[in-house]
């Protein structure tokens, strides 16, 4: 145990996800020996992220104003809405440069084992957005794991009766990979989702 | 002094739960055939390049090679998964049917709670859980009936089966009309404690049918009796577990269909009104 401020810093760092007691100690001593200007910059960044960043009132992506950059952009199509689990999924899809519609961030996936049900996600808000009648297609881009697939199934069940086309991101082989190394589930999905060339 | 050696051993298992660990790993909770419940690390399975991540999704029956100490006499309780082959991956069928997915989640959580001690073999619970997931994936019976049958039989394996054909207190044989969770099941008029429930006789018949595997009777049961049976089974289970199951309140007992109907008939607001409200 260290005394005072250094132990407080180790304790606080140790509460961060993925940071164990040894890592917390190493980071704390790095901060102690770092240039004061660097430490001030880090402290300012930490303070600013809590003060300035909030959730977009339309799509619930992270934003620094009332609405996020995507929701403010008039060139984005309002007819196609892409549903993702987390804000970081928006960044991943934006990196592709393929999607010009808008997003809706659920804030997770349905996971009964962790006590997360439909009411704990922003599904009610999604249905309210769809109720405006401007959306023609809903793309379900939840993770391709059990929780993500179950969430997509639930959303499809809720949305299809509203007369909106519901699509799911394709699953299959990674670009640059060898077919022989693909597992049977991924390869099976790739066969299910094959397309004409 | 001999050092800690991680043995490689093989077993088949059901994947009960997966939790994220670090950047790309997962902790997998498994119910194995020969080694009871285990927690094992699967390294790199969240990467798209993972060779076996897809096989370690919940509700899968898999054949595993695990590194660790199978008896738990030395070292860490966390094992490491080195190879996986899928035997039957029930998750694929279950995620396409929301009520079955929520029922499977409740089965997985119950199996975990009925095995409080790791590495304690529980072959009958393994077989029961495997049968429950298989029945859900096959879809021959309603998901709530499969779940209630699993819970009743699971409680039977744990020694808490509700008394259905004799008084839970004095043992007087016969079908008694009152049901008391603290007393342990049906109770005769002499032993009936205050606050005991009086379920319909058909509900008690359904409970007995589910506990004994009489699917013809169970499938023919009416919806109100199914709901009453689910309530009694859930109350009985949670009384004995002393802590509620997180997944049980989220089990879809037909409400999704009703919500869909509501969504279908919900009036669509005028886009101009919505835009005005947003401003």
Care to describe what's here?
The complex is a heterodimer of chains A (197) and B (279). Chain A is of the alpha/beta class. Chain A folds into 2 domains: 4-52, Orthogonal Bundle (Helicase, Ruva Protein, domain 3), CATH 1.10.8.420; 73-196, Dna Topoisomerase Vi A Subunit, Chain: A, domain 2 (3-Layer(aba) Sandwich), CATH 3.40.1360. Chain A has 8 helices and 6 strands; from the N terminus they run αααββαβαβαβαβα. Chain A has a 4-stranded parallel β-sheet. The longest helix of chain A has 17 residues, at 36-52. Chain B is α+β, with helices and mostly antiparallel strands. Chain B has a domain at 141-254. Helices cover 39% and strands 20% of the residues of chain B. Chain B has helices spanning 91-94, 98-113, 123-138, 143-158, 201-212, 215-220, 223-241, 255-265, 271-278; strands at 7-21, 25-32, 36-42, 60-68, 78-89, 178-180, 185-187. In chain B, the strands form 2 sheets. In chain B, strands 1-2-3-5-4 form a 5-stranded mixed beta barrel. In chain B, strands 6-7 form a two-stranded antiparallel ribbon. In chain B, a hairpin with a 4-residue loop joins strand 6 and strand 7 (185-187). The model of chain B is unreliable at 260-279 (pLDDT under 50). Chain A binds chain B through residues 18, 57-58, 110-115, 117, 127, 131-134, 145-146, 149-150, 153-154, 157-159, 161-162, 174, 177, 181, 183-186, and chain B through 17-18, 22-23, 48-49, 51-55, 57-59, 86, 89, 91-92, 94-98, 101-102, 105-106, 108-109, 246-247, 249-251, 256, 259-261, 263-264, 266, 268-269, 271, 274, 278. Chain B: Belongs to the RecO family. Chain B: Residues 8-90 form the DNA replication/recombination mediator RecO N-terminal domain. Chain B: Residues 250-279 are annotated as: Disordered.
SSE topology sketch:
The complex is a heterodimer of chains A (197) and B (279).
Chain A: H1 4-14, H2 21-33, H3 36-52, E1 54-55, E2 62-63, H4 69-72, E3 80-84, H5 87-96, E4 102-105, H6 123-130, E5 137-140, H7 146-159, E6 165-168, H8 184-192
Parallel strand pairs in A: 3-4, 3-5, 5-6
Antiparallel strand pairs in A: 1-2
Chain B: E1 7-21, E2 25-32, E3 36-42, E4 60-68, E5 78-89, H1 91-94, H2 98-113, H3 123-138, H4 143-158, E6 178-180, E7 185-187, H5 201-212, H6 215-220, H7 223-241, H8 255-265, H9 271-278
Parallel strand pairs in B: 3-5
Antiparallel strand pairs in B: 1-2, 1-4, 2-3, 4-5, 6-7
Helix pairs in contact in B: 2-3, 2-4, 3-4, 4-5, 4-7, 5-7
């Amino acid at each position: 145990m260290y005394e005072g401020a250094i132990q407080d810093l180790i304790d606080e760092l140790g509460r961060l996800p993925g940071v164990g007691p040894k890592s917390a100690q190493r980071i704390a001593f790095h901060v102690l020996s770092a240039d004061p200007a660097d430490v001030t910059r880090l402290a300012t960044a930490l303070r600013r992220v809590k003060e300035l960043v909030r959730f977009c009132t339309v799509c619930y992506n992270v934003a620094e104003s009332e609405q996020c950059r995507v929701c403010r952009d008039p060139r984005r199509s309002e007819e196609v809405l892409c549903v993702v689990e987390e804000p970081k999924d928006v960044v991943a899809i934006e990196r592709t440069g393929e999607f010009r519609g808008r997003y809706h961030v659920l804030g997770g996936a349905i996971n009964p084992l962790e006590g997360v049900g439909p009411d704990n996600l922003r599904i009610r808000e999604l249905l309210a957005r769809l109720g405006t009648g401007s959306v023609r297609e809903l793309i379900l881009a939840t993770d391709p794991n059990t929780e993500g697939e179950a969430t997509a199934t639930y959303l499809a069940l809720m949305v299809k009766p509203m007369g909106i086309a519901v699509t799911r991101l394709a699953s299959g082989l990674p670009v640059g990979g060898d077919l022989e190394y693909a597992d049977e589930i991924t390869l099976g999905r790739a066969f299910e989702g094959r397309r004409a060339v | 002094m001999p050092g800690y050696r991680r043995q490689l051993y093989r077993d088949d298992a059901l994947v009960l739960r997966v939790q994220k660990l670090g950047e790309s790993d997962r902790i997998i909770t498994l119910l194995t055939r020969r080694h009871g419940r285990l927690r094992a690390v699967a390294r790199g399975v969240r990467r798209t390049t993972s060779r076996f991540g897809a096989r370690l999704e919940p509700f899968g029956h898999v054949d595993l090679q695990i590194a660790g100490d199978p008896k738990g006499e030395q070292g860490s309780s966390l094992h490491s998964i080195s190879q996986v082959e899928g035997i039957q991956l029930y998750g694929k069928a279950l995620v396409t049917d929301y009520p079955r997915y929520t029922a499977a989640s409740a089965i997985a959580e119950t199996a975990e709670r009925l095995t409080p001690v790791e590495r304690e073999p529980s072959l009958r619970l393994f077989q029961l859980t495997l049968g429950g997931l298989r029945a859900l994936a096959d879809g021959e019976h309603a998901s709530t009936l499969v779940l209630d049958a699993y819970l009743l039989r699971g409680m039977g394996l744990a020694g808490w089966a509700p008394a259905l054909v004799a008084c839970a207190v004095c043992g007087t044989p016969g079908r008694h009309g009152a049901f008391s969770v603290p007393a342990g099941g049906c109770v005769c008029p002499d032993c009936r404690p205050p606050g005991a429930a009086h379920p319909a006789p058909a509900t008690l018949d359904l409970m007995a049918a589910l506990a004994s595997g009489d699917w013809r009777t169970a499938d023919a049961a009416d919806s109100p009796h199914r709901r009453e049976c689910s309530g009694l089974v859930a109350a009985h289970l949670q009384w004995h577990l002393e802590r509620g199951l997180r997944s049980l309140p989220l089990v879809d007992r037909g409400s999704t269909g009703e919500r869909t109907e509501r969504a279908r008939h919900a009036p669509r607001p005028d886009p101009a009104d919505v835009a005005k409200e947003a401003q």
